[in-house]
Amino acid sequence: MTDSIESGAVTDGQGRNLPPLQLHVPEPPARPGESADFTHFDIPAADAAPRPDEATHPSQMRDFAYGLVRVLDEDGHAVGAWDPKLPADTLLRMLRYMALTRAFDGRMFRAQRQGKTSFYMKSTGEEAVSIGAALALSRDDMCFPSYRQQGILIARDWSIVDMMNQIYSNKGDRMKGRQLPIMYSAREAGFFSISGNLTTQYPQAVGWAMASAAKGDTRIAATWCGEGSTAEGDFHSACTFASVYRAPVIMNVVNNQWAISSFSGFAGAEATTFAARAIGYGIAGLRVDGNDVLAVYAATRWAADRARANGGPTLIEHFTYRVEGHSTSDDPTAYRSAEESSQWPLGDPIARLKQHCINLGIWDEERHAAMDQQLAEMVRDAAREAEKNGILGHGLHHPMESMFQDVFEDMPWHLQEQQQQMLDEWKAAGL
Ligand SMILES: Cc1ncc(C[n+]2csc(CCOP(=O)(O)OP(=O)(O)O)c2C)c(N)n1
Ligand SMILES: [Mg+2]
């Protein structure tokens, strides 16, 4: 039993005066109406990080969990040991895929506002995370993404009409309307079905990687989750399995500073980095400038080479910023400073690669503007094509009775009865 006394000290049953226990409740540095200040971030020079050998033991990797792997400096020059020295055509492909992802996001966001779909999630400012990784992985490596890695499908040249059909839940939707819009699944693109239940993809990716090794295959797995999602138990079980069996897997944490309305501090960012989670598990950890597509590429390539050589898993934290709302259901002006995205110290990933390509003499503003125009038209044409298959509320979805299909090879009698009952009730209601 304890009694509070006026001074705030507490006397316990044994007569000891003890300070009252307190909880630390994290508070974001800035709220709406306040100015954003990122000067406390320690951003090392772009050429500061050495590049360790891919076979380095995790115990020698400690500093990489607290530093920042970077390639592009403030002027858009590629510097330092991590420069992947990519050929011009690869750089321009990266630029195009990032710009296409942004154009796709813009069109689909507007489609939601026009009532054509119920939901959409943009990846604005985070395009480098998906595009850099997709180009560094082999086409047949298996990806277990979260809902903000649409760029992987785009960089694997998946049909954007097919993606839109899923967003519209129309009769062309391969998911037959059974998944929330943007929760794609594309086996042929090595893109595992997205789940709305945060971080379930983590143990699945590790399990897939373990199976690949158990079968003597050569393909590796990669997975992505947000920084908020690292608070899920699944993240930690996945790390344990990955470490114990040295699974050939790359575990990406996209630290975009925000979960929905809760800032990264609620997932532990005030105490340490997300890459440092790796240290406790004996996993190699890299912290990377997530707005630098060349750094993302170089780190992913390092981790992929390590996994392919049976060197085990790597945890990569991509330090980035979620420029827009969490989803179309969110309003970030209600909880964060409007200045944050413009004050973000690591810039915009597309602008940075564009500047780099201009510096190399392989690109210019005119070509960039022409590309943006061409991509906007391409996305508009794709949307028109997808809309022919139906949009929200226009009835062009898969037949209602199809919701009972694809679970059992032969539909059991009780489901047949329920299906029939549904159809009878619909008919009676004149629908
Ligand atoms: C298990 C579970 N808990 C909560 C939610 C609700 N939810 C959906 S997204 C989200 C925020 C996740 O933030 P983060 O992991 O940082 O990813 P980000 O959206 O920033 O990419 C939450 C809490 C959910 N979908 N699943
Ligand atoms: Mg987040």
Entry keywords:
3-stranded antiparallel β-sheet, Rossmann fold, binds thiamine diphosphate, 12 helices, binds magnesium ion, disordered N terminus, 8 strands, 431 residues
Which compounds are bound in this model?
Answer: thiamine diphosphate, magnesium ion
Tally of individual domains: 1
User: How is the largest sheet built, in terms of strand order?
Assistant: 4-5-6-8-7
Which shape, going by the Cα principal axes? Answer: globular
Number of strands: 8
Helical residue percent band: 25-40%
Q: Report the β-strand fraction as a percent range.
A: 5-15%
Q: Please, what is the average pLDDT?
A: 96
Q: Number of helical runs?
A: 12
Helices and strands: which structural class? alpha/beta
In CATH, the topology is named: Rossmann fold
Largest pleated sheet: 5 strands, parallel
CATH H-level name... which superfamily? Thiamin diphosphate (ThDP)-binding fold, Pyr/PP domains
Q: Give the distance, in angstroms, between the N- and C-terminal Cα atoms.
A: 66 Å
List low-confidence stretches: 1-5
CATH class: Alpha Beta
CATH architecture: 3-Layer(aba) Sandwich
